[in-house]
Amino acid sequence: MSRPRSSTKTYAAPAIEKAFHIIDLLAHYPQGALVKEMAAHLGRSVGELFRMVVVLEQSGYLRRSPTTDRYSVTYKILDLAFRATPARNVVRTATPWMRRLVEEVGQSCHFVVANGAHGLVIAREENPGTRGFALRLGAPIDMMQSCSGQVILAFCPPDVADQIVRDIDAVRAEPIDRSLLDERLELIRARGFDQRKSPITFGVTDVSYPIFAFDRELVGALTVPFMELIDGSQRVTVDAVGERLRAAARAISVELGCPED
To answer: Considering the domain 80-255, what is its CATH architecture?
Structure first.
């Protein structure tokens, strides 16, 4: 008797898996790692990884330091991500408005999209002044705690939000209180945005608005981490920042194809 076929097929591609494991590992080592360190972390032999690392270097995905022999990931990965996904068009559209916004409010801003169980900063503009607070490009964002993450959860389609929450729940030590989360997201939807004290940084109030495209499809969240100075010398109030952020988010959405109301 023949065995029933599985509805889900799995395929093995050891070389490809090995390459992605190397790149994923190095994402946690911005200063780079030696081949022997990679081998130890991945449970592989040095000889097994060496050829793969050299091929990735020759292909432009890794860079070897001439002084330390440590390998690090190059910007080719980021370039491919921008060119192969909608992020490139989003960033190209959002950047002029983000630059105008930081000039107007004297605060930094960043653009976050959903990326599995986390958010991802795909664009950012720093405060043009001498003082400021900004997230780095490519920074992972906690979808449950961050202002950006909850705006994304509030305005994305329910099935997408449910999947994101399941992904988050799978990696959290404590289960998510769905009733409390649903109450919070409903409040954000009613307001049209989110504004609250940063759960991580003292003196920062996060303000975040959703960005939409065609058919009002959610693209991500545009956020200003408003840094309040002790001497009160910031150029605009947090409420004024919210108004200008709302206008910038609306302008970006319209350029991405969202219908004007």
So the answer is: 2-Layer Sandwich (3.30)
CA 138 to chain centre: 6
d(CA 219, CA 213) in angstroms, rounded, equals 6
| Separation in Å, CA 244 to CA 97, 208, 250 | 10, 11, 10
Record: fold of 14-74: Arc Repressor Mutant, subunit A (1.10.10)
What residues pair up with 211 in beta bridges, in sequence order? Answer: 220
Domain ranges of the chain: 14-74, 80-255
Q: What is the mean pLDDT of each run of 10 residues along the chain (261 residues)?
A: 46 80 86 91 90 91 89 80 67 93 93 90 86 79 92 93 88 85 95 90 89 90 88 79 96 88 68
108: tokens are 């930094």
Predicted pLDDT of residue 1: 38
Q: Are 60 and 91 in contact (CB under 8 A)?
A: no
